[in-house]
Design goal:
Nuclear Transport Factor 2, Chain: A; six-stranded antiparallel sheet; about 25% helix; elongated; disordered N terminus
Length: about 220
């Protein structure tokens, strides 16, 4: 197990974020509401596609995952936990708590930063409540899980002790799906997505933990 009190490791995830921001040139742009049915003058935005009923079950990430030691397997689980939700059975706080349960267990990382990161991917509370009236669900079809080519550069720029041993980044690409009902008709919405997760595993921890997330659709390349 990692000891808690060392000066060099007190804020490792903050260092990760500074490095990643510099390498990927991530810009702090506002993230629009991800609503399938964002009511504005009684019109949905973006406009959903009315289809025959082609809904499929939303994958349900394990609420408390079995401890995972394989970084890629953990990254896949975390990606699904971030994107897969059903407003009929889950509230926004539960969607956040699902990932915070696997955050840095020492309490010395940037837990508040991770909460903010997760919030960038979720509808706000008012929109979540509105989406519930449309029985909105979301899920992610993962296509690729890769270590970004620039991750080695990011690690090389870190001073000794500024990254926890076993820290790795994975960039996920895939397709985000939403479905629900609009005026009694089944509707669907799909969009490509890409993002990066930053994870710490052994030897710092006996199992993997989520440190931070990139902004939506601004992955580390």
């Amino acid at each position: 197990m990692k000891t808690k009190n060392t000066t060099d490791q007190r804020h490792p995830t903050r260092i990760v974020w500074i490095i990643v921001t510099a390498v990927a040139v991530l810009t702090a742009v506002g993230v629009g509401v991800y609503g399938l049915f964002f009511a504005q003058h009684d019109k949905p935005e973006p406009t959903p596609t009315t289809t025959a009923s082609t809904t499929q079950p939303v994958p349900k990430p394990t609420e408390t995952p079995t401890p995972m030691t394989d970084p890629e397997r953990f990254a896949r689980w975390a990606a699904s936990a971030l994107f897969d939700w059903d407003t009929a059975t889950t509230n926004r706080a539960e969607a956040i708590d699902r990932l915070m349960a696997v955050a840095d267990p020492t309490g010395e990382g940037e837990g508040a930063g991770l909460v903010s990161d997760i919030g960038n991917y979720l509808p706000d509370q008012a929109t979540w409540a509105k989406l519930r009236t449309y029985a909105t669900r979301q899920w992610l079809d993962i296509e690729t899980v890769t270590v970004p080519a620039t991750w080695d550069e990011a690690k090389a720029q870190a001073a000794p002790g500024q990254l926890l041993p076993g820290t790795v980044a994975y960039t996920i690409t895939g397709t985000r799906h939403r479905d629900g009902t609009w005026n009694g008709q089944p509707v669907t919405y799909t969009a490509p997505t890409a993002f990066t997760l930053f994870i710490a595993c052994a030897p710092s921890f006996p199992e993997c933990h989520l440190l931070r997330l990139s902004l939506p659709d601004q992955p580390l390349k």
